[in-house]
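BUG: 3D viewer hangs when loading the predicted structure for this chain

Environment: internal workstation, default settings.
Expected: structure renders.
Actual: progress bar stalls at 90%.

Input used:
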Amino acid sequence: MNENLAALVPELALLGTAVIGLLAGSWLPRRQQWIIAVLAAAACAAGLVATGVTMATDREQTVFADVFAVDTATGFGRLTVLGALLLIVGMSVETVHGHKRETEYWVLLLLTGAGTLALIGANDLLTLFAAYLLASIPAYALAAYAKDARGTEAALKYYLMGALLGTAMLAGTALLYAAGHATLYRELNSALPAAYGLVAVGFVGVLAGLLFKAGAAPAHFWVPDVTEGASTPVAAYVTTLPKIGGLIAGFRLLHQALPGTDVNWPLLLAVIAAVTMTLGNLAAFFQSSVTRLLAYSTISQVGYLLMALAVATRTDLAQKSLLFYLAAYAATNLAAFAVVTELPHARTLGDYRGLARRHPGLAAVLVVCLLGLVGTPPTGVFLGKLEIFSAAVDGGLTWLAALAVANTVASLFYYLRWLAPLFRLAPAEPSARAFAVSGRWSAATAYTAGAASLLLGIAGGAVLPLTTGPLLP
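Structure tokens produced before the viewer hung:
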């Protein structure tokens, strides 16, 4: 049995720092608890370095009775999650600085990040469910971190939806175990085809939990309420990191455990993808709140990402399109949320009127983000959409690719509703409070993430080869 702890350095770095941070924060004076933020950033950086070394030296392996796989998908997913977590740390500094529970915020963020990393590499149903819990429970507390009415309501909805679909996921795991007498994906792959009914019901149960993490229909109802009720950095987290973990975990499950079954899961996922992208775009048309608009935008983006899962075993393009799109989406979405964090008093689309004149740098980042989410070159999302649409066509789902193109064109409407006010005349002085900035860390995060979105689009040819490689059984 391979029990190489060195293969789990990124996960252990986050978990170890969370424990150290919790203990140290109990003794540090409140004005010095920023040290835990430095530790959190250092843990992310250490994880990135360890992941880079692993990918450069091609140390692919499965560890601990093959329940966790360290392969291409795990490596690139780690880079995306740890990079995104580092950006979230940056945009959170001004929000939580001096808070009486500042240490707890960083610890919860590290724990839920570790759970997301565990989701990415899970190669066993029980490991998958344990990772689901580790990624979810700290996130519920983060949603209620502000302890105000909106945050408490958001956390309650988040928790109830997560508990319900987590129970469905556990029940699905039990049914798949009953059908295949195993929880390891490799063993399920050969054992499941003989039991159609149990496999179908069990798969739907497990899929329900993963759809909750991704924020896809019909498990999307929590997304707009949590995004609006939680603090903006937490909203950035819940619309980004859980999707990375849930979608890569779903891709691995479909590719490794279910390809030989008679269940027509590609059609089911194609329908879910179509409903999710359409529902997200239609709901975003009528939003005036910037956070709710971004919430429905993220639902529509999940619809596009699910296209890769629908063709997971039908084309070799599925994996690289999913991994690249996730990285491009994470950078672009976090850049948009960093701008919103930097302008805490601008809550509606109208509040951004005249931003290009008052803060041209932030306006430029927002232009890159919003046009990037549409899929405009040369941003990373453009290349990601191109890859994922190509994968859908190559996998025999041309109708889904056509619907995705139509949804992309339609989404331009509500993104332009936000972009247009940026270049109009600035509001009168009494309304200029909307342009009060929160601090330099959020602005630096916005510029960094916006630049990353552009860089992924421009240098996509160099990044895409990093996403190709077999999944380890």
